[in-house]
Amino acid sequence: IKGGAGFLGLTRIKDLGHKIENVLDMIRNRELVPEPEVANIVLLAFDKLRDMIHNVAESNDEYIDDHIAALTGVTSAN
């Protein structure tokens, strides 16, 4: 998703996908424990990403700052 979105100029989809990927990589590498709060942040971000993909024409206008901040906070805290 991230690569295709970047190629197509869908910057918000690319950015959100990248932040989600960072959290999942940390979980996979056992650098982050998927506690309920972390899981909730990731699931909410996935919900937003899904909505943006379903409405791709307006995805670059979507507000994702709260999701980006929450995902960045998870990765920065560890």
Model description:
With 78 residues, the protein is mostly helical. 72% of the residues lie in helices and 0% in strands. It has helices spanning 2-7, 11-28, 36-54, 65-77.
Biggest sheet details: none
Q: How far from one another are the termini?
A: 25 Å
Low-pLDDT segments: none
Per DSSP E runs of 2 or more residues, the count of β-strands stands at: 0
**What is the 3D form?**
elongated
Helix content percent band? over 70%
The amount of beta strand, in percent, is under 5%
State mean pLDDT (0 to 100 scale). Answer: 96
C-alpha Rg (nearest Å): 12 Å
User: Strand-and-helix sequence, N→C?
Assistant: HHHH
- Number of helices, counting only DSSP H or I runs of 4 residues or more: 4
Question: What structural class do you assign from the helix and strand content?
Answer: mainly alpha
Attribute tags:
single chain; 78 residues; mainly alpha; elongated
List the helices and strands and how they pair.
Blueprint: H1 2-7, H2 11-28, H3 36-54, H4 65-77
Write a short abstract of this structure:
The protein is mainly α.
